[in-house]
Amino acid sequence: MDSNLDACGVPAYEKDDLDRKIIEHFPGKIVRKDLTSLMKRGAGIPTYVLEYLLGMYCATDDEAAIADGMARIRKILAENYVRPEESEKIKSRIRELGQYTVIDKVGARLDEYRDLYVAQFTNLNIEPFVMPDEYVRQHTKILTGGIWCIMRIQYLRPEDIAEDPLADIFGDDPAEQRGRARKGRTSGKGKRGPEDSPFKIASLTPIQMPSLDLSELVSHREDFTTDEWIALLLRSAGYEPSALTPRERLHFLTRMVPLVELNYNLCELGPRGTGKSHIYTEVSPYSYLLSGGQTTTAKLFANNAARAGQRIGLVGHWDCIAFDEVAGMNFRDQNAIQIMKGYMANGTFGRGTESFNAEASMVFEGNINDSVSNMLKTTHLFDPFPPEFNNDSAFFDRIHCYLPGWEVPKMRSDLICERYSLITDCLGEFLHAMRRRDFTHHIDRYFRLNSDFNRRDEIGVRKTFSGLAKLIFPDGKMSREDVRMLLEYAIEGRRRVKEQLKTMAGIEFIDVKLGYTDMENPVEMHLVSVLEQTDDSLIPDTTPQAGHVFGVGRSVADEMAVYKLENKAVNGNAAFRMEGAGSNREVRDALNAAFEQFKNCAPRLAAGMHVTSKDYLLFCNDLQAKGPSAEISLAEFIGLCSAASGRPVIAGLVIPGILRLSGSLEPVGNLADVLRVAKNAGAKRILLPMSSIADLQNVAPELIGAVSPEFYETGDAVAAARRALGL
C-alpha cells in the first residue's frame, strides 16, 4: 500500500480481498483506518469521535467523495472542534454569531440548592451554565463522567430578549424586565449563578450511532471465515491482525470481553507500552477509564446524598469501568473494597439502607516491572496491586480471567491498522448490543468441566468463553474445535488466577488442575496449564559446590529475595574480597561481619581447619535483581565454612538470618514471607533456629510442607553451620 498523498490529499490505496468483502457487506459503516491516522494528527479526540465524522462523510470507496469528505472534516476540526488553547476564540464566535455549533465533551452535576443541572465543557472554558433537564434525562452519562457531543450553543444578550406584550397584566413593565435581564438573576448575596450565564444549549446530539441493526450485522458473519471475522474485529479496533500471532489475536480480543459480557472482571498486568487502555478510551463510548485508578465509593457505586433515582454511580451508567493503574488504586472509604468484592461477585451492593444492582464490568490494568519468572519465584502475579488488596485472596478470587500482558507485543507502527474496517462506533455499538446475549451454554454441547472446578472457577470460565464466542461467532455457529479453542483459552485465564491464589493462601486454593472431558471420550481428561508456570528453580534440589550457599533476606529496596553466595578459598593469608555486593555500606559491613566471625569461630567447626592460610573470594549473585541485602550474613558465614572445609551444604537448602559482628544472631522475622519466597525459589529445606518453632504455628501448612525446617540451637552460628554441612 502506497502511503503517498494524491492531489486531493487522500492517501493512495490498493484494496485487498478483505477490504472488498468489508465494502460489499457493510456499506455506510466503513472507514479507512489510514484516514483515521491522518486526520487524528494534532486532534486530541477519541478515535470513535473522529470516525463518527469519517462515517458521516467518508464511508465510501469513491476517491472523489472521500476527498470532499476529508476537506469537510478538516474544516469541522478547524472551526468547530474546541481546542483548549482556542477556547476564547470559540466563545467570541458564539457571541458574534449569536449561536454556533461545537464539538466537545460535556458533563453536568445537580445543584440541589438551585434545583438545576450545572454543566461544564472539557475544553471550552465557559463558566458553569445551565444544562436543560431533558438532555440529562435522555443521556444520563452526562452526570457520570460526561459524553462527547455535537452542540449548538446560543449567546443571549439582555437586549435580545423580546418584549412581552402582556407583561403589564402581571404588573411587569417591559423596560424593567430588560433591566432585570441586564443585572442577572443574582442570589441574595449578590453572586451570579449558572442560570445567569448568557450561554445556552439550543440542541445536543451525542456522538454515537443513532441505531444499529444487530441482526443485520450478525447475519453477515457467514460471509466471512473465522480468521477474516477476527481480522475485521481487530482492524475495527485499530490493530493490524497480520502482524499478530493467533494467540496474540486472542489476547487483543479478550480486552473487548468486558464490553460484550455483563459483570465481567478482567485483570491485565504487563510491561508498559502495550496499549492496555486503548480499547476503553478510543473504541467504545460505553466505557469509563479511571486514570490513576483513584475514585470514591460515592462516585463508583452510589451517593447516598443524591436524590432518589440519581444515587447510583459509575457502575450504573457505563458498560465497563477500567482502572488504569492498579498500583495507584486508592479508596478513602475503608469499606470500598468490601463493597467492590460483593459487586464483583454478583453485581449487587448496598449503600445505607438501599440495595443496588448494576451490570458494569471491571477491568484492572497495571505494569509489571520485573520478569514474570522472577516474580513467580519471589511473590505472585498480583503483586503490583496496592497493599490493601495484595493479601486479599477473596478479592482476587472474583477475577474471571488474568490476561498475560507480558505476551502482548508493545505497540509498533506495523501493529496500527491502515486498511478498511467498521467504523469504531459501529464496533462499540455491536459490543454494547451483544451484552444481552448469553453463549455460556455452548460449552455443554461438547464438553464437561472437571472436578477441580469450584463455582467461581466455572463462572469465570463460562463468562470468558461466552464473551469470546459472542465476538468471534455472534451467530452462535461453532464447531466442536471452535468451542474447544475458546474453552481452553478461558480455562487458562482462570487457572492463572488460581495459581496466584494458591501461592497467596495455600491449601484453600490447592485445586488448580482445571480441565475438561470431551463427551465423545469422557475417560480422557484434558488438563489446561499456564505457560509461565514451569519447574525451573533458583535453588535446585541437588548438592551444590563447596562454598556455594543460598541466602534469603530483605533487600535494601525492602523486597524479600534469594541470593546465591559463591565462596572460593585459595592460598593466601586470610584476606577477604567480595564482588557483586555493590557499594552500600550496610551490606558490605554485614558481609565483613560474617568473615570476622568465620575467622573467630571456624576452628570450633572442625579440627585442623587452617583458616589463616587461605584467601577468600566472594561473588554475591543477586538472582532476582532486587538489589543487595544486609540480611544474609549467616548464609555467608556458612558459605565461608563450606569453602574452607571443602564440604558442601545439604541439597535444596536456603539460609535466612543476620549474624552480627558481636557474634549474636538476630531472630528470623517475617517467617511466612521468608518461607513463601523460599518455596517459590524452589528450596526444599530451610535452616532455622529452635526459637522459630513457635512462629511456625502461624504459617500456612502448605508452606511448611513444601519447605522442611532444619533446626539448630538458637543463637549458635557454629551449630547452624554444622547442621547445614551435615556434620
Automatic annotation (TrEMBL):
GO terms for molecular function: ATP-dependent peptidase activity; serine-type endopeptidase activity. Pfam families: BrxL_ATPase (PF13337), BrxL_N (PF20442), Lon_C (PF05362). One of its GO terms (biological process) is proteolysis. Residues 24-155 form the BREX system Lon protease-like BrxL N-terminal domain. Residues 167-200 are annotated as: Disordered. Residues 626-708 form the Lon proteolytic domain. NCBIfam families: BREX system Lon protease-like protein BrxL (TIGR02688), Lon_rel_chp (TIGR02653). This is Uncharacterized protein. The lineage of its organism: Bacteria, Bacillati, Actinomycetota, Coriobacteriia, Coriobacteriales.
